[in-house]
Amino acid sequence: MGSDDxxxxxxxxxxxxxxxxxxxxxxxxxxxxxxxxxxxxxxxxLTKVIDIAKDDAAFVLGRGGATKRKIARVSGADIELDExxxxxxxxxxxxxxxxxxxxxxxxxxxxxxxVTIDTERSRGDYTAYTVPGDCIGFVMGRNGQTLRxxxxxWGVLMFFAKTNKDGGESRRGxxxxxxxxxxxxxxxxxxxxxxxxxxxKHPGYCVSSKGELRDVDRVPGDDDEGGWGIDTVPLTDDSFxxxxxxxxxxxxxxxxxxxxxxxxxxxxxxxxxxxxxxRRGKDYLRWLLEQRTGQSVVDxxxxxxxxxxxxxxxxxxxxxxGYRGESLRAIEREAGTFMFTDASPGQxxxxxxxxxxxxxxxxxxxAEIVQDRVRHHERVGDRPPMDRGGGYGxxxxxxxxxxxxxxxx
Length: 409
Fold this sequence. Notes:
about 20% strand; four-stranded mixed β-sheet; alpha+beta
């Protein structure tokens, strides 16, 4: 989601183009593009330069350059803003530069009034989600902080806007369109996060009485790629608290390890991604919930391409997991993995520690940490044994890593 970093040696300079302050979005963008030239063709990359007014420059830059960095990350273009020459230099593919020009124009519109979006234009980087009027303030948060945190988490650009379907009217308190810009996975993640907040504030808006996720109307171009989709798994109140963890820590762990977008909308666990990602996410959640009452048994873990097995001396397992599993969870956080001991019988003086992640590199990193901890235990000797229930050091019933309550928006 960040911008590409490539050499500028073979790129030609482009002519500056103006996108005047008092023009509409469509006119501004059209004029900017007509006056720009691609500079150099380095793997399909080019350079564009646009003029910007002084007041707009400060707004686009943002505090400490935060807004400029956000636009660069979402668009994929390199962006340099010269506050003295009042120019913005963009470098990237044609699509990346055009997206960046659009995003800059949206930011400029926010400075003077509401943003207007053409929902009939098929663009491929845009998701619109209708937020009910009684949830708008909750989704935005104080001074927009909740919305900004979602942008930061998912690498997207988000704001409420008028659309060409509004008929020129948009009243506070009525439903409003939340516009989400960025790559598909990032947009879907931010959308599910928004739905989680909306369902908490307005139960039944996102989840039907049958416990099914309601369909979302898609704007032209907002299509799922081949194999992409969303699966759901219902949760009980107890399993929800366990699967969420303290401030969502357990949910985030499962998402990081599986490579799947995982959000809880009401009491519905939602898994978004490609088929193999969703399968991993659902497997990890099922094994986690099994640990509330015992240990998980994984059928033939050697056959899985997301599992690394580390032999751990039985006497070192308690040392490795730590009090209430905290040491093991620290390794999971550091390496981006999901780990627990195999409950298969007849393992003798050693136990199988199963390390799960879609990333081989993450699994190898976790295995190195585990082996280092085992060697350290062999040096310092035995400590008083600890209850290791469920391979997590005996997490309290309903704890799932601690916490509970509604997911943070």
